[in-house]
Amino acid sequence: MINYNWRINNPYVFTQHDNEIIITGRALGKPWKDKHYKEVKDRIREHLRRQQNDRCAFCRLHVPSGQFYPHIEHIVPKGSREEFTFVSHNLAYSCQLCNFGKGQRSTLIDPVCVDYPMRGEEFNIVHPYFDDYPDHIDFIEELLIIPKNNSLKGRRTIEFYKLDRTKLALDRAFELNINNNAISIDKLTLRLTREDDPAIIETILALIDAF
Ligand SMILES: [Zn+2]
Q: How far is the CA of 162 from the centre of ligand 1 (A)?
């Protein structure tokens, strides 16, 4: 398995200058997407990009900063909890598909908690700062993302970020340069007989077809 940086160990530290921009923007009612915050967001994105080795926190694909516009994903959606918009631990570098995939789904166990929770148990998905991804998520042949030991967190992360999308498995094959010499069709076929999740079965069939 690739040696990813599974957890984000160093959250972004807002500077005094950042805080001034944020306070001014909020007083004027400017939303996250407003260009008022651009320089702050650029600094956050660059910090997280380095922390995450250029990889999306959810699908773990490489997100080249020059090719696709990398996103800053709000783990707790900013639409539901606006006050967590600029909480460092709520921000992760992600690809566009994962960011849009999750949308406004709630990731909090207690959706009305007052302070931003600082423990993995308080989130219903794998939290990039508080949980270890490999405890909850596994890969079949490095390509297919599945829940580990039926982990509920793993299952929800896959569901929320659509990590069972067929295209993702194919993108992983392309990125990892896994071709028909390197992949074991036999192992994939064997896996077919073990899985009962229709989405996973569909993806395995697509992979067998692609190779
Ligand atoms: Zn992603």
A: 9
